Amino acid sequence: MRASLLQIDVNEGESVESRRLRVASLVREQARADLVVLPELWTTGAFAYEDFGSEAEPLEGPTYDAMAKAASDAGVWLHAGSIPERTASDSGSAAGDGPLYNTSLVFSPSGDLAAVYRKIHRFGFDKGEAVLMGAGQELVTVRLPSTTLGVATCYDLRFPELFRGLVDAGAETLVVPAGWPERRRAHWTLLAQARAVENQAFVLACGTAGTHAGVPQAGHSIVVDPWGEVLAQAGAGEQVLTVEFDPGKVAVTREQFPALKDRVLGLGTPRR
């Protein structure tokens, strides 16, 4: 399986529409890949909180249209990263005046929407994404011909129980688009490897380059195999990171070292 991670430079001097067109062109250039992955919130920048509202789109908005067409033109599975999604109001009386979500879109090689994932763990504690966006409620997997993807986003990487849930749902390849800051880059690499080892799965973690609202980005997108070995890692700037891997290694690893079978669940509350 051939995967291309597009580590996009989110340059504040480039308009959202210009970046959308440029990224669509980059996706089309990956026609030899089976899977293409984009980063989190690449249209706006993950830390450009003040732009979330003004740049939010409906699910089937301009980014949806551009990425569906690009996936179809290239004939690839496309994890189109995430967008700030503006939903309809609860009453349904008006489109575009409901809550915001950090929403990922996955397209098939025919350009059809294969999955939608709304980020469960929102970053910011008492500010930023944590207060501006709603929390998703559903784990999402996507069946490809040679592997099953488990979909997560950025801050989710710090919560191993989410990935256990994805593995229980059949995930073999964990895809994590992100807008991860440079100052915590060591955590990015460490956590990507940890999620791979503990779940005996491939991890494809695609970050952004550039600076979002004054926050330098880590870049260093990474692909890790089920033993925790780094198969490829990008540098700091914009880059297309392409790697070939054998999805069958997941089953082999889980058979050779069947640690997942020894999980003990429902331990309850510790005694004090």
TrEMBL record:
Coiled coil location: none
Gene Ontology MF term list: acyltransferase activity
Top-rank lineage group of the source organism: Bacteria
Domain CN hydrolase residue range list: 1-247
InterPro entries in alphabetical order: C-N_Hydrolase (IPR003010), C-N_Hydrolase_sf (IPR036526), UPF0012_CS (IPR001110)
Gene3D superfamilies: Carbon-nitrogen hydrolase
CDD domains: nitrilase_5 (cd07583)
UniProt entry keywords in alphabetical sequence: Acyltransferase, Transferase
Pfam families per UniProt: CN_hydrolase
Family of this protein: Belongs to the carbon-nitrogen hydrolase superfamily. NIT1/NIT2 family.
Protein's recorded name: Acyltransferase
